[in-house]
Amino acid sequence: MKRVSGLLAVLLLAACGNEAPPAQKPAAPVVKLAEDAAAIHSDRLAQHLRMLASDEFEGRAPATPGEEKTVAYIAEQFAAAGLQPGGENGGWTQAVTLEKMVINGPVTAAFSLNGTRWELVNGEDIALESLHPDSDIDLRELPVVFAGYGITAPELDWDDYAGLDVAGKLVVVLVNDPDFETEPGRFGGRAMTWYGRWSYKYIEAAQRGAAGVLIVHETEPAAYPWATVRNGRGAPQFDIVREDAAAFHLPVRGWIQLATAQRLFAEAGLDFDEAKRAAQQHGFRAHAMQGIGFSTAFEVERSRIISRNVLGLLPGGAQAEETVIVSGHWDSFGIGDADESGDAIINGAVDNATAIASMIEIARVMALGEAPARSVLFIALTAEESGLLGATYYAANPLRPLATTAAVVNMEMWSPDGPTRDISSWGLGKVSLERDLAAAAKARGRGYSSDPNLEAGLFYRADHFAFAQAGVPAITVGPGMDQLDGGVEGGMAARAEYFARHYHQPSDEFGDWWDMRGPTADTDVVLQLVHDVANSVDWPAWDADSEFRAVRQASAAERSGH
After folding, report:
1. Is 301 in a helix, a strand, or coil?
2. Of 15, 50, 125, 78, nearest to 431 (Cα)?
3. φ and ψ at residue 45, rounded to 5 degrees
4. pTM of this prediction?
5. For 246-303, how does the pLDDT look when each residue is reduced to its tens digit (9 = 90+)?
6. Same-domain check for residues 374 and 467
7. Is 473 in the same domain as 513?
8. How many angstroms separate the CA atoms of 232 and 259, rounded?
């Protein structure tokens, strides 16, 4: 076993007026947490981790035998914890229909440089994929354009595409957004915005009719190394079923290595660093890369599969029709390319077996105590690694009304490197749940720290984001950085090592060397948070400057009688 070091479009709507307060009603009775016999147990968490992250579960990829084992295990543990089935038709699951895309056979790709052909190696020079309905990708001599960061943001007076038609062309764009390496400007500094996410860049280019996009990979602004990109693109790709898939998805999309991009720019008579600096300035405009063409051909095997969210319900008392969702994703990447040790199973111990183990423990403890006022729905979500698909599907097809879903408390990636003085949340959420989390941490003798790495864009990379887009107050809770042994410096170093060496790689494994004090203490804080929200008469809310506030306010009338 290799030692794993620890971790850890946005709807741009104007904020409206304050939401009408709910009708007055008596305060909920005080509901106590179960006592010592039902406390969060380190050995129980370790038992679940050892099972979920074992080679037997084959990396927990959707639509594999690993999914069958994972779903069965979670449902079994939900039942043992004392939950009721919360899925469809009285069962434990919600069927999530997905399109599955697997590259079948070799990928050929090349740039033509003023008549000279430059062959590219997929997975090394570039990493390609396609979610487009066409099964036979055959693109020849596409004109290539450089579109800076690939951003159109009218509210910021920014349009990288102004004046240039990119229909039928390959667009090369930079990762993250223009403020990452500059003084804070129109994008607010180093904290990544939605415009910095790869998913936004693909969507924007597709809407403009581009044939493809290549994002230039740089480890720091991407927040992960090339190995993460390669493993992600090499695995089967999934998407929800879309009637407009041909327009929504580019025929080809992917990433290009920095060194490969630097040579490409040089062949076009450009200096990459100068071009990047120009793209960071207001007024930049996309332009053609003269003399460059791009060709690629590969076949995609497409099928439609049924994956599953796993749901367990703890019925509430006086406010049983109101819901608190506790979530985390169960999927990892399955079996990929072997690493240097010959290991090909991407076990996903930190990411995200830790959350599923915590969810099962929280359910067990809460079921042993008094029934909470609000019902608590535990959801182990599928296909997060393919773009938050299980969460997106549930938000579009909720089994309990979203209008009366008080909050979503999502968990991600507890650290195995020892306990911290603090606990954190992902991104700048602008939501009352951040203050609730701070209060829960204080009740457990700990502190709360906001996300120390906003430039990584973690807010947009976890399942709570799909619920936020639907207006539901949501948060993803992750580990803090201030280690009891090592301080903030030690915590940051451990996090950096995890993302550099283990994230989405076979070395993300569980072992007896894990210090379970950290995941145990973090799970205990989340238990407190869920307990507090589930036993409150108040509705968590987005802050006045949140882009999700207006969406939530649209359903205010449905909560006014509660």
Report:
1. strand
2. 15
3. -60, -45
4. 0.81
5. 999 999 999 999 999 999 999 999 999 999 999 999 999 999 999 999 999 999 999 9
6. yes
7. yes
8. 20
